[in-house]
Specification:
Order of helices and strands: HEHHEEHHEHHHEEEEHE
Structural class: alpha+beta
Number of helices: 9
Strand content: 15-25%
Distance between the termini: 79 Å
Radius of gyration: 20 Å
């Protein structure tokens, strides 16, 4: 009897869990974007060791609550800046009495109220060309680096900084970019309306640009995050990134007609 009740309870729990059945053309990135989560969280929930998924595969999805999984190097301050909230709010939501965190710890996040407020000056993230093709070589290159540790000044498959990340992605596509963030910002042509593949630049420390990411479409970008300590995909609409955004550059000039 106990075994039967245990099986019923397990079945009820499984039925209550939100899931997604993989359709043709789906990628972990497109599924994560659709459900407001991250590729890393989908991989963790489903025990995946690679980005490859198959049509018909059933993937578990995170529950309705927004959650951040603490990574090595994370602090309450860096997490608060990343999600546009405060240290005090994170401590209140999670019942914390100390700012100390442990890697792997799950933190509840506040609901995204800010995204429904009147827009403030920031990136124009509605590209005329639509989304990045899920099968594009650019996106495949980006996903290969997802989770690689951030290290200032590093430039290798094992660790890299923000400008090395975008340079390595484009190097795989046969496009050479300058090495540093400032050189990339100064050398490349301005992108007025964002398109997938554009480089997006920020100023975390003052007036000069000091951070770069790679725009993927639908208002999200990939970057080697010094706050997240690894390569991640995040929203350009987050209040912190809207405040520090300084413009975009296009690595590949459009082909001109005869």
């Amino acid at each position: 009897m106990r075994l039967a009740w245990a099986m019923v309870s397990l079945l009820a729990w499984a039925l209550a869990q939100p899931t997604h059945t993989v359709a043709p053309g789906d990628t972990l990135f497109s599924i994560a974007r659709r459900y407001g989560t991250t590729v890393e969280e989908l991989m963790r929930l489903n025990g995946l060791e690679s980005f490859l998924i198959q049509v018909g595969q059933v993937l578990r999805l995170p529950s309705g609550d927004r959650v951040h999984r603490v990574a090595p190097g994370d602090t309450l301050f860096s997490i608060a800046r990343r999600y546009g909230t405060t240290v005090e709010e994170l401590m209140r939501l999670n019942g914390l009495t100390s700012p100390d965190l442990k890697a792997g710890q799950a933190l509840r996040l506040p609901q995204e109220e800010a995204s429904r407020e009147a827009p403030s000056p920031g990136p124009q993230a509605q590209p005329a060309e639509g989304d990045l093709d899920p099968e594009s070589p650019l996106l495949r290159a980006v996903l290969r680096y997802l989770g690689v540790p951030y290290k200032y000044g590093a430039n290798s498959p094992l660790s890299l900084d923000c400008s090395a990340f975008v340079a390595q992605v484009y190097a795989e596509l046969g496009v050479a970019l300058p090495r540093t963030t400032r050189e990339q910002y100064q050398a490349l042509p301005v992108a007025e309306a964002l398109r997938p593949g554009d480089l997006v630049f920020f100023s975390f420390g003052g007036r000069e640009v000091d951070h770069v990411g790679l725009y993927l479409g639908r208002g999200v970008f990939a970057h080697a995050s010094s706050y997240g300590s690894r390569v991640v995909i995040e929203s350009l609409e987050a209040p912190f990134y809207r405040r520090t955004y300084r413009g975009a550059r296009r690595p590949v000039q459009e082909a001109k007609g005869p």
